[in-house]
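Dear H.,

Thanks for agreeing to be a second pair of eyes. The structure we're designing against is below in token form, covering all 235 positions.
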């Protein structure tokens, strides 16, 4: 009897050049989530069996990289742009096998570049930056983590202000909370409080009481941290 492994090959068709290729995915039954960090970063039971590493599909022929969140259609003018900026410089390489964290980070950066050229939604681009930050966190590269948190925050705020998250799996409550938590992680306390306030003010409209509760927890933590600073540094 054949032993079932956590990994399987998924057939993909490139959205840009229509080339068909295989890429590795992880069977959901093998994924063990132990919890989530305050910015929703999943904590998996195994470093190897981590679906984050396999979220991006990279076409080995033309280099176009995308996730399931990308829109499926590419207008001709943007296809030409993608060919000019990516495919012409692409050295054929295969990210379809088992990936290291470093390799996964490269796939997210490729996908973010493709998303910018393809003019994907801000919410999609923000998600790519945030997942890149999570992977840098895994390997303790705090400077790079902070850089990508900053990029993600900017795109999430733009998405909120332009309403481009509407019609996606991201709710307004979750988006406001996430922006606040990412600002908090950059020590932008005043701005973080502003977004947490929006979550708490709109709690009666929310269908996500757990996220409202998380917002209150972050509010409390920041208030206590502020009090501690005042005690340690009296005027």
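And this is the sequence the design step returned. I haven't edited it by hand at all.
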């Amino acid at each position: 009897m054949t032993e079932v492994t956590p990994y399987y090959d998924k057939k993909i068709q490139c959205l840009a050049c229509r080339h068909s290729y295989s890429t590795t995915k992880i069977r959901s039954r093998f994924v063990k989530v132990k919890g989530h960090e305050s910015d929703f970063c999943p904590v998996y039971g195994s470093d190897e069996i981590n679906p984050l590493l396999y979220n991006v599909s990279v076409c080995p022929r033309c280099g176009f990289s995308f996730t399931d969140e990308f829109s499926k259609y590419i207008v001709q003018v943007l296809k030409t742009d993608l060919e000019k900026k990516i495919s012409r410089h692409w050295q054929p390489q295969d990210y379809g096998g088992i990936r290291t964290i470093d390799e996964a980070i490269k796939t997210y950066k490729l996908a973010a570049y493709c998303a910018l050229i393809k003019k994907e939604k801000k919410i999609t681009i923000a998600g790519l930056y945030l997942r890149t930050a999570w992977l840098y966190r895994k390997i303790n590269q705090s400077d790079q983590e902070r850089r990508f948190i900053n990029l993600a925050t900017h795109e999430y705020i733009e998405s909120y202000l332009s309403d481009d998250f509407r019609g996606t799996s991201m709710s307004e409550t979750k988006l406001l909370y996430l922006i606040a938590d990412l600002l908090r992680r950059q020590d932008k306390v005043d701005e973080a409080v502003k977004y947490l306030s929006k979550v708490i003010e709109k709690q009666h409209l929310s269908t996500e009481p757990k996220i409202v509760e998380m917002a209150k927890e972050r509010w409390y933590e920041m208030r206590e941290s502020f009090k501690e600073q005042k005690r340690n540094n009296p005027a």
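Two observations from my side: The chain has a mean pLDDT of 94. The two ends are 73 Å apart (CA to CA).

Warmly,
E.
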